[in-house]
Amino acid sequence: RDFTKVISGSEDGTLRVWNMYTGVCGQVLAGHRSGITGVGFHDPNLLSVSWDGTVRVWDVNVDS
Predict the structure, then answer these.
(1) Model pTM greater than 0.85?
(2) Phi, psi torsion values for 4, nearest 5 degrees
């Protein structure tokens, strides 16, 4: 398990994966066309919900 990550969702439709100890953003995830309304995290997967009506599943251990 990785308890070092914090996720933020933005109005621009991106998510950011932060290191909670250093405050450094390690990843920016883009794919939604509208603002993020919710996130769920279950390492290594991140789920995001957006005003564009989509739900996306991300693997935050992959750099793309």
Answers:
(1) no
(2) -105, 0
Would you say 16 and 7 are in contact if contact means Cβ atoms under 8 Å apart?
yes
Enclosing domain of residue 29: 5-59
The CB-based long-range contact list for 23-30 (8 Å cut-off, 24+ gap) reads: 27/60, 27/63, 29/58, 29/60
CA pair distance 24, 18, nearest whole angstrom:
6
Residue 23 lies in a domain: yes
Report pLDDT digits (tens) over 6-59.
Answer: 899 999 999 999 999 999 999 999 999 999 999 998 878 899 999 999 999 998
Task: Answer yes or no: is 64 within a domain.
Answer: no
